[in-house]
Structure formats: structure tokens, C-alpha cells
Automatic annotation (TrEMBL):
UniProt cross-references to Pfam families, sorted A to Z: YdjC (PF04794)
Full protein name: Carbohydrate deacetylase
Keywords recorded for this protein, A-Z: Carbohydrate metabolism, Hydrolase, Magnesium, Metal-binding
Gene of this entry: YDJC
Domain of life: Eukaryota
SUPFAM superfamilies linked to this entry: Glycoside hydrolase/deacetylase
Amino acid sequence: MPQARVKLIITGDDFGYCPRRNQGITECFLAGAISNVSLLVNGNAAQDAAQLARRYNIPIGLHANLSEGSPVCEALKNNSSLLNEEGFFHGKMGIRTVLAEGLLKMSEVALARESYRNLRGHQPIWPRGNPLLIRHVFAQVLEEYGIKHTRVPIEPGLHSCDWIDPLLMDFYLGVEKDSFNTVDVFTKHGIKWPGVYIGLSTMGKNMSISNIQSAIDNAVAAFVAKDDSSAHSSVSPHHDQGSRTVTIELMVHPGYPSIPPVGGCGEGPDDFSQSWERLHELQTLTNTWLQSYYKARNMQLCAFKDL
């Protein structure tokens, strides 16, 4: 195993989606299986999630959501370009269509920033990249509020993951393309992100202890190889290989399956949230073998606030 110091952020996404999701994520945190959560502000149980975070000192960031469910901001609930005819966000693909057609008002995107501040009571860390022109608005908001870190979901090795369903892979590749286009914008605004992102190839039924281990080991090996290459090409004789540190975010979705009609972001729980896959992630993440792996590799579990 190549030598490098690893700071590992394990983010439990969708905190606030439903009480059973909150329960599972909290159990994972208390078991040391996750180290950070992202709060879905318009989730059915967002208030409960915020209270749990305060009670157990769970490091919390914002799960930026402009595609699913209903808005929290009152100014966006009527006649907003962010909503369809039924009064809900356009969906993951629908929002891209509206953007491409030039029908989305960026001023309304900026209004969404207030919801998290009102619920949580301090500045958020936004762990998510955003497509097209939305990235510019988000970058400005992040800089304005002094938010230093976010997520940029570019996953190494994603293209070779032949176990991912083709339709889902098409969506993932779209996310990857958007993320590549976001890098320069975020850099310009002084926003940083972990050096490695993992989570698309290990989501739901595709999560296993071996998949997580392989993804992390391969990412660290690639980081060290790239670092060595940079050192060999450098004119500086003072490159300290012993100080190499790679930061990794592992995005996960643990929880207990949602039971309709409770859950969701205004439209009820979706199929994924009701499936066995959420519980599968919870059980995998809390497995002692995985915990032993982190310890054997001397990985430091941390949160975005620790970067």
C-alpha cells in the first residue's frame, strides 16, 4: 500500500429526508461509520435532523437541492422558474432541460441560499457541484458567506465500473461533465474540495466492503503516483514525500427504508428511499471489517470543517 496520510470524510447524504433516514444516519455517526452529514433542507424531517445534529454534535453541511420536491423559500413558491406546473422542482433531468432552454432565472437560484441559514443558524458547507450557469451563482454565494469547502463529484475510475446500470451511468457521466466545468469557477472564487471523491460506484446495491476498500486504495495509489511524478519533474530538492496527505470524501446514503406517505421533499418518498438499499448501506458501513480497514490504514475520519 503506497504511503500517504489519508483524511477521510464519510458523508451521510439526505439527512432530513424522513425520520427513519435520520435514525439510520445518527446511528451510523454514533458508531463511527460516518463523520459528516448533508442536510436536505426541504426534507420531510429537516427540523428533526437539525435537532439531532445539535444534540450529538454531528458535523453538518448543506445538501443543495434545486431539483427535487418543493422549495422552502416563500418567494419561490409561486410563479418561479424553478418549479413545474405542479409546483415542484423540475427533477434531476428536467432542471437541465430548463437550463438549456434559457428559462431558469438565476436571481431565483440565489434566493434559495437563505433556507439553510434560517434552519441551521450558521453558515453552511455546500457539498455539491451544480450544472451550467447555476455554478456561477452558487460560487458567488459560497464566497459571499465565507464557505470554504464543497463537493465536486468527479470519481476516479468511474468509466471502468461495468456493474453500474447503463442508464444510471449516463446520468453519472452528465454529473461528471458538469463537475469538470465547475472546477475553474470554484477555483476562481477560492472554494476548495477534497482531492478525491468516491460514491457513485459504491451507491446502494453496489456498495460492499470490497468495493469501498478498492476505491479508496486505488485512489490513494493514483494520488501517490501523481505526487511522485510531480516530485521527479520538480526543480526543488526539498520535496518531502513523508508529508503527503490526500483528502477523500466518501458519499453514502445509509438509513432505514422510508414508509409512505412519510418522507421526501414534498412529493413523498421515492423508490430508492423505500428500497432495501438504504439499509444495505447502513449495515455495510457499520461492519467491523470496514472499521478495521480504516484503522489498519491509519485513516483519519474527519468532517469538512476539519479541512
